[in-house]
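pls design
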């Protein structure tokens, strides 16, 4: 990627309407989604004035949203120069993966022995919705959204919704790697098989099996980082 991309929403960016969530938060959430789904690839230049026109807001919420995205490591702001989507930082990705393994495995360990099965039923229903998208590559975004929803349900079931939100903000680099991997032949089937292994262990009330199944599930992409770096060198920082 020898030249930066210029941001161009082509009129597709939603205008921000009044609501309970602040304009800055809504801009942040939409831009973050566009970045992690690679609609805005690394080194895409982001213009505050263009974004303000796209979203129909002043530059103040744009500035606030950009500050949050910079904290997430998803953009780089060069004062008095430019703002651009960052490359995938492998060091930060590995740290986020370490945190994710610890949290997700503890969540299923606790959930496996809980008497209340309602969250498990929700997770199973979401998993079945993903199965329905198995052979629909044009629905990758929906598939990913359902994946996030399933993990959120598990966290909420053990009273850790705030922790899920914290973790989610740390996973931007990993989410982009997952997006690069999703079109790979067999990847969707692998994810679905791993989900089934986690669900089966939870249904069986087997905490150790649930932990191992979750560990395998959340570690798939990290084991292929070097290969992804080779396939998509312009998406990654030079460090590893």
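designed seq:
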């Amino acid at each position: 990627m020898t030249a930066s991309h210029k941001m161009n929403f082509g009129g597709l960016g939603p205008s921000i309407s009044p609501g309970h969530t602040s304009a800055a938060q809504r801009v942040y959430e939409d831009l973050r989604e566009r970045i992690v789904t690679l609609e805005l690839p690394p080194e895409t230049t982001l213009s505050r004035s263009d974004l303000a026109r796209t979203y129909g807001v002043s530059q103040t919420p744009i500035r606030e949203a950009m500050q949050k995205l910079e904290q997430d490591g998803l953009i780089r702001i060069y004062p008095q120069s430019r703002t651009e989507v960052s490359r995938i930082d492998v060091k930060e990705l590995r740290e986020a993966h370490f945190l994710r393994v610890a949290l997700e495995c503890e969540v299923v360990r606790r959930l496996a022995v809980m008497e209340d099965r309602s969250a498990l039923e929700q997770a199973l229903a979401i998993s079945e919705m993903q199965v329905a998208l198995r052979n629909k590559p044009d629905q990758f975004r929906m598939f990913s959204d359902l994946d996030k929803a399933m993990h959120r349900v598990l966290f909420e079931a053990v009273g850790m919704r705030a922790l899920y939100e914290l973790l989610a903000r740390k996973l931007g680099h990993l989410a982009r790697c997952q997006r690069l991997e999703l079109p790979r032949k067999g990847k969707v089937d692998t994810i679905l098989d791993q989900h089934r292994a986690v669900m089966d262990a939870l249904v069986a009330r087997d905490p150790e099996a649930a932990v191992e199944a979750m560990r395998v599930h959340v570690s798939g992409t990290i084991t292929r980082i070097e290969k992804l770096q080779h396939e998509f060198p312009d998406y990654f920082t030079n460090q590893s």
